[in-house]
Fold each of these.
Amino acid sequence: MVIDDSSTIRRSAEIFLTQAGYQVILAEDGFDALAKINDQQPALIFCDILMPRLDGYQTCALIKKSAKFHSTPVLMLSSKDGLFDRARGAMVGSAAYLTKPFTKDSLLAAVREHTAAASA
């Protein structure tokens, strides 16, 4: 699942992941994502930090509080690359932190790393 309020980022991630053979669920913000997560049950979630209504930290914290999705890896996506942002992401339970703009290789490497860990 890719949660981002930028249609460009959602589209880029969708293209990269689909080409690599992954099924992709898109969400525009945290509320949209939370509504879709129950039905779709994604194996991995990429979550933007700066979004309207419900930001990435709040979205990640809500996902991690859910008994059903507690073990689903959430990877934060952000153009902010500060130590504080990374620490705050880790505090709410994110498994990793990717900075935007991401490359196809970095996105796919993150998927492989975290889906292998989840299925191990």
Amino acid sequence: MKRQFFRLAALFALALAPLAEPALAQTQTQPPSYTFSPVNQYDINLTAAYWNPIISYVSEKSGVKLNLKIGRTSADTTSYVLAKEVEFVFTNHLFSPEREQLGWKVFGRRQTPPLQGQIVVPADSPITDLSQLKGQEVAFAGAEAFIVYKVPYAHLLSKNIDVKVVFAGNQNAAFAQLFAGKVKASGANSQLVDGYTRRENKKFRVLWSSEPFQDLALMASGKVPEKDVKAVASAFIEMAKDPRGREILHQVSKEVGLPNDAYFIAASGADYAAYRRFYQTAPATLH
């Protein structure tokens, strides 16, 4: 009886084998899948409107599935990166000496004019000099924002101009508070100032501008296989050479107020030397 049971069990397993093989083959042919987290330069809806068409195109062309993951604020999004929950990023939050040890590798960047950290007020503001901001409320995107917060705030500290810091969550929210009269000035990114001016028809007075920095970096985690990094990098960089890819870039750039030719190009860590120089002299609290 026992022998007959084992014989039936063996026959049952053989009967299932042809069904299991196609299922296994199907699993093996699934494209690799990774999470992509770009820093919140705009509010969540505008950030998604810019990135979703791009990563859909890149996923199709590279054969590597990218899934968008953004937090409520830029600090939230960066927390996902530091918690190792994502594999690809578009950021400038990883160039401090401590974070360079995490093993992220630059493979591309957006081809736009260099960015400058700025301190801005509405064009009709009575404030014309940084010294007038002493003791006043100044909006910044968030504590993780390099161009928008760390660079301008470090300058204010170097000039002994003590301001009341207000974190708005992203650059759009900081500008909204500025033009609503809730704060006297805002830390800013020159690219986002230009984009906001185009979209919202608001005019700024720039009180101070920093040295230039390259636009944010496309980076991959060290745990992503090299072949997948190369496939994703190629799709980003070749996007502007494909008529459909170029049209997608034109449309999403228009949506956020970027120049029409804000394409992606190859880059390396050497392009971000100015970021490293900043951390050499910045207060430890800004690292």
